[in-house]
Specification:
This protein is an alpha+beta fold. A hairpin with a 5-residue loop joins strand 2 and strand 3. The radius of gyration is 18 Å and the shape is globular.
């Protein structure tokens, strides 16, 4: 294959990959306005998520956010792996890169990699939140309680579907408030 033909094929492949990334992007979904980080701190129960390898097989998942002395946010994700009869925990550091958009954070579980964390829906009383990343491959519905009203949950899932998330793949996370230490 000559160099010109190879360059054309690479350009076509790159253009196709860019189009796929654009279709999966959450750039068109804005973060919530008026986000108050201090009200968001504390423990959240994971109610629904898109599957991904780092939470595979986990139930009773929680995310706890607290302030570090330097103003960054400590994130502790915790879940129970029934297959191993064991709790799993991951810690991260998050920060707000642009104070004008506080509902868009960066999260780093291990250096040097960080990902986007974007709150796209939020109860005015901070009882539930809908979170995504920079792509539609990541999605969570979080609640301050381990159980969410079914009508509310269905409404949030309908909005997710309207925004292009694949709700057919979403997992309802088993929660047991008594088992969450």
């Amino acid at each position: 294959m000559n160099l010109t033909r190879m360059m054309i094929l690479l350009a076509i492949a790159f253009a196709g990959a860019s189009a796929v990334r654009a279709a999966e992007s959450t750039d068109a979904i804005p973060p919530v306005p008026g986000f108050e980080l201090n009200r968001y701190l504390g423990t959240w129960y994971e109610i629904v998520r898109l599957p991904h390898r780092f939470e595979k097989g986990q139930t009773r998942v929680t995310a706890t956010y607290s302030l570090n002395p330097d103003g960054s946010i400590r994130v502790v994700n915790r879940g129970f792996k029934a297959a191993r009869n064991k709790w799993s925990q991951a810690e991260a550091k998050a920060w707000v890169p642009d104070p004008a958009v506080p509902a868009r954070l960066k999260v780093r579980f291990f250096w040097p990699f960080s990902g986007e964390y974007k709150v796209i829906q939020l109860d005015p009383e901070y009882r539930w939140a809908v979170v995504t990343s920079g792509t539609k491959n990541y999605f969570w519905i979080l609640s301050r309680a381990p159980v969410m009203d079914e009508a509310l949950l269905e409404s949030l899932l309908a909005t997710a579907r309207d925004n292009g998330f694949d709700t057919a793949k979403m997992i309802r996370v088993e929660q047991d408030a008594a088992a969450n230490p």
